[in-house]
Amino acid sequence: MKRWFVAFLVIFIDYQSFAQLMVGSNVHLTISSGATLTVKGDVVFTGTSIVENSGTISLTGNWINNAGVNLFNSSKGEVLLNGNIQQILGSFSTTFYHLTMQNGTKIMNVNTGVGGSSSPYNGVLNLTNAIFSLKSNMLSVYNPVPGGIQRTTGFILSEDPSNAAKVWWVNVGANLHTIPFGNNAGEDVSFSFTSSPPTGFQVGSL
Question: In what order do the strands lie in the sheet with 112-114?
Fold first, then answer.
C-alpha cells in the first residue's frame, strides 16, 4: 500500500494523488481558492495537522481525522465524498464547512458537524443522490438557513435501534426547514418544521 507523508504543502492548482492512502502527519496543508486536491483512496490526518482549505478536497475513500477537532480552523472550503461506500472516522469529530456527497452510501462513525466552525456559518451539507447513515451518532448543522441541508434524491438514514442517532440543527433561523430523512426501504420520511425565534433573537436551536 502506498503512503504519502507531507510536512508542509500549499496547493494552488488541481492536484491528484493516486495512492490508496494519503496520510498527513503533523502537516500544515493549504488549499487555495479554486484548487482541488483529488485523492483516489482514504485521507488521514494525524498529530498536529492543520488544513486551511479554501478550495476542494475530493476523495473516493474514507475520511479519518486523528488530528483534532480544530482540523480546519475557520477555513471555508469543500470536502467532496464521491466514492461508493465511504466512512467518516477518527479519534476526533470533524466540523466541515461545505460537505458534498455523491453516489452510494456514506457512513458517519463519529459525531460530525457541517456549516463551519466559526461565524458566518454559511456552509452547506449537500447530499445530492447519496444515502448518509448516521449510525448511532449526532450530526450538528450550524448554518441557520433552510438551505443548510440540500439534496436531489439523497437522504439521511437514522434507524439505529438505540435511537442514539440524531440531527441537531444548532442554529435555526426563521422559515420552513426540512431534514430529509429516509428509511431502509428508501422511502421519504422527511421532517419539516417552522422556526419563529422570539423577538430580539435571530436564531434558535432544535
Answer: 94-95, 112-114, 138-141, 166-169
